[in-house]
Amino acid sequence: MAGKLTLIVGPMYSGKTTELLSYVEIYKLGKKRVIIFKPALDNRYGTTAVKTHAGLEVEAIAVEKASDILRYMNHPVEAIFFDEVQFFDKDLVRIVRDLLDKNVNVFCAGLDMTFKQNPFETTALLMSLATEIIKKRAVCNLCGEYNATLTYKLVKDDSEIDVGGKEKYIAVCRDCYNQLISSAKE
Ligand code: ADP
Ligand code: TMP
Ligand code: MG
Ligand code: ZN
Questions:
Q1: Which residue has the higher pLDDT, 128 or 42?
Q2: Is residue 171 within 6 Å of ligand 2 at its C-beta?
Q3: Out of 14, 28, 87, 130, which could bridge 136 as a Cys pair, Cβ 3.0 to 4.6 Å?
């Protein structure tokens, strides 16, 4: 049977990586073979681990470009996991499609939008291919409601590809995002 693509999206701190790792655990409990990949660009936690903001981590393979994953595919696996898909090049989409055709289940987690609310292209393309999309929310850093769908950048740096954590980014709801943008303009 063809594989399924489960895609987990949302702003920073919304539990995307936590949910991805909960699926990893299910496969590992069932003694199923899995591989976990992350982009080499995300160097926050060293090159060999996927880690959540709460500190949970698992071993992963860091790759420079999507096609690099093919060299790790010499053993049969039941599922393949990708964290931070927004940082993978678009070749990932074709590779994921081939994996589904080879009956491998694929789980991806990543940001849907930049802090400027521009879509991350690889995530957007994976959304069209996905069997299931799980859209996560975070707690808004300003109003405290569990309705944050956006990420706001605290530092004055326009770059939409800029690895970091709490020193640079907060999760906010749309109303609080708009308030922050208008007060930053004043
Ligand atoms: P993501 O990969 O989406 O950035 P993680 O799965 O790494 O998220 O981290 C989720 C964890 O982040 C939560 O379990 C919680 O401990 C922590 N956290 C920090 N700030 C927030 C927030 N504003 N809303 C929700 N969780 C938060
Ligand atoms: P996270 O979703 O697991 O918290 O990680 C998101 C990573 O993406 C983090 O390293 C910060 C980075 N990032 C950008 O490069 N550009 C952006 O616009 C946003 C919101 C985050
Ligand atoms: Mg994450
Ligand atoms: Zn809010």
A1: 128
A2: no
A3: 14
All domains of the chain, ordered by start, with CATH?
Answer: 5-136 (3.40.50.300)
d(CA 173, CA 138): 9
Pocket of ligand 1 (CB under 6 A): 10, 12-18, 52-54, 138-139, 141, 171
Mean pLDDT of the chain: 95
State in Å: Cα 157 to ligand 1 middle: 23
Residue 48: closest CA among 39, 30, 18, 56? 39
| Average pLDDT of the segment spanning 44-69 | 90
Task: Record the pTM.
Answer: 0.97
